[in-house]
Fold this protein.
Amino acid sequence: MRIVTIFLLGFALLAVLIWVLILGKRNADKPDFTDLEAIDVHAHVLIFPPVFEEALRRLRMRIVNICYINKDDQGFETLEPQQTAAIRIFQQSNGAIAWCSTFDPQHWERPEFVDQTIAQTRLAFEKGAVGIKIHKSIGMSLKSNTGRYLLPDDPKLAPIFSMVEAHKKTLFAHVADPTTAWQPLRRNNPHYRYYKNHPEFHLYMHPERPRKETILESRDRILKRHSRLRTIGCHLGSMEDDLEELGRRFELYQNFAVDTATALNAMMLQPRERARAFLMKYSDRVLYGTDLGLVPWKDPKKTVKHYEEQLARDYVYLATNQTITFRGQQIQGLDLPESVLRNIYRNNALKWIPDLATEPRK
Ligand SMILES: [Zn+2]
């Protein structure tokens, strides 16, 4: 009897030991964040303070600094001076902070608009821009003289996309917004503050404007017509609340990928297995981005500290099975395999933004 007990105890101990070893090995298997040499493909950086330079070097990271135009966002009202700043930071950082240009679509009806935009974009490419960004004002707010809303696939914009396609550059498409924009505003919504401060994009209050589906279908027609135009849908292509539908678009359009900027939060609030299965299946289509805003009127030390906290939290969520607290909820990490992590954090960026393949000078 005693021998049997000892045998059973020994067996149980051995089982526990194996379990601990497997768990320990599983975490040790994952690369450190710095080993990933991550590229954050969605940031808005107007300055390059030493604290940021030091953080990037320590974290072995690169950034894509995206110009965009929104007349209600301080510092981003016009293309200049932000584009000049982006070029300067690109040079100062020896290429570690790549940059993406944009154009102002406000006067798209003027006869000179297309030629001017193409000339300006060509110049931006000569100065190292990795692509151009279009902003949600196309679809959500810009209206013609006759009262028609400008949609992304408007024929006026097509020659610009053709030109980007011919140059093998990347289109960053922030088209439409989270579905919340078309719904009544509720305090518990993650986007409550944003739409409170940006009522012009709270389309629930503007029922005369295009519906979300209309705008996304318009974007999809660009993907179809410009089949060699690498397009990155910002913020999970504004489809963060419908990953199944987003996956369907990936199947339809081989030239379509998305970044995770501000949309990882929405993913965290979904059932873990759904989010994990999506990232596993489409591990070649998702690029890591944060929407970092580094601006001269905010303390850069604080901004960089928050940024590093966000990077750490996102890494725990994507790479481990540990629990994080988000909006009062306990969220278990996705524990993605190393190959998927390397794709999301780096390889996809090199593939979808070919200019990044040029390594920065050390
Ligand atoms: Zn952004």
In short: Residues 36-357 form a domain with the TIM Barrel fold (CATH 3.20.20.140). Residues 42, 44, 261, 291 surround zinc ion (CB under 6 Å). The chain has one domain: 36-357.
